[in-house]
Specification:
Layout lengths: L6 E2 L3 E5 L5 E6 L2 E4 L4 E4 L3 H18 L6 E6 L2 E5 L2 E2 L2 E8 L3 H6 L6 E11 L8 E2 L1 H6 L5 H24 L2 E12 L5 E4 L7 E5 L13 H4 L5 H22 L1
Helix pairs in contact: 1-6
Amino acid sequence: MKSEKLYEGKAKILYPTESQEILLTYFKDDATAFNAQKKGQIKGKGEINCTISAALFEMLGQLGIPTHYIDRPAPNQMRVKAVKILPIEVVVRNIAAGSLCRQTGLPEGKELPQPLVEFYFKKDELQDPLLTDDRLFLLELATPNQLEEIKNMAKAINKHLQEFFQDCNIILVDFKLEFGIDHTGKIILADEISPDTCRLWDAMEGDATAKILDKDRFRRDLGNVESAYQEVQQRILSQMAKNKEQS
């Protein structure tokens, strides 16, 4: 691993490689919530999130979704294509939870009639505000064509992930995606897909608290954070193995 950092975020560090078109991502055990107002560590989180993200990126790539993923040279490291990240957080919601409930009064757990795709301005100092399409264009964060492409990709990713997680006996409540533009100008999926960026509920657990398998356990001081992340990893890898055997 190179010593000079290109960028350090809340959960990952980016390092250069010998190729300008390839970066090395190091996944940290650090955990943050509420725009980094709450900080802590989740033991083994970096390796778990890297493992899960790599597996899901590989699966999505095979299903025709372009991603930045190349390979995983170490348990908590991922080689990725260098992209210019769009400053937009794309949130896809299948079930009401979190800020959607706080802002609309919808009860937590209400299944939405269709997936809801939302956009947030990736800017901590503004607390990542919700964007309308017109505000997004006003800020020149993306073009109308790019936004339409992102919406379509987000819906396709949601469909693939919902089907896969269902096989894992996990409910995909909602999740955050980030997209980047590669050196050819193509929009591709970037960042990570993990219990840090998804709300995941155990489909086999009826208790409202016990079913939570994601970072909400850290946000809400519910305990057993590490074991929840480990459970998600185990189910994903087990289902991946089953899918390979059947193919």
